Amino acid sequence: MEKLKKSLNSKTKLLILNTPHNPTGKILTYTELEQIAHILKAFPRVLVVSDEVYEYMIYDDFKTLPRMSAIPGMWDRTITVHSAGKFLSATGLRIGWSIAPKNIINSLHAIHQYSTFCMNGPLQNAVAESLEIANNPYKGHENYYQWLRQHYQDSRDYFIENLEKIDDFKGKFWKPEGSYFVLVDISKDKIPEHNYVLDGDDGSNYTKDFKYVLNLAHTKKVSVIPISLFYTEQHKHLGENLVRLAFCKKKETMDKAFDNLKRKC
Question: Kindly report the CA angle at 85 between 81 and 86, in degrees rounded to 5?
């Protein structure tokens, strides 16, 4: 919180939050959101964009997602971002929406019409209908949202349980509170010497996580994400000892990956 406070000044206009967070899987608690809101009292010009696209992928003690817009004094200055693609497990839709006070939404409309022409009508209608029926009973649950949360809870637990059985990953990862990603610490891993590079690259600037990912893809046929890609150039070193795995897959797909990861090369 002190670092955040020192990062703000009279010229700051926007604070972007992501909860549940990609790639760490962390959820900002109500207490943490209240602390951020308290800091922002000294910076009344700052608006908050709260990216909550993984709002239904929340686990364990989190039954509902803590929201910045629900913190006293923050509704009037918060834009909350939602994604149909995430909660419908169809990220290729690229359809989402924002919720904010009318004056902010009016400003967003003015910008939006000049930055994006429109989304095709049939997909918009499909999403609208999905929102209308999502509160109906679904697969033995009170509604689709409850089923979705339980589905990803089961997937996360299954993924964690099996990852812990693999020697190269045991005790080296964090259990996410939300989203569908798992971060793995590769700081103590030794990357075999190889010449794996992407087309057009010579590999001279590859960080450790990038080398790890390319080696894993070639030797184990499993594709994961290097975390240094999430950082600006000057801060890449903060992510080069981490990689991201995803469990938004069918169990048979995860099982195949587990078998490959256990294979000795």
Answer: 70
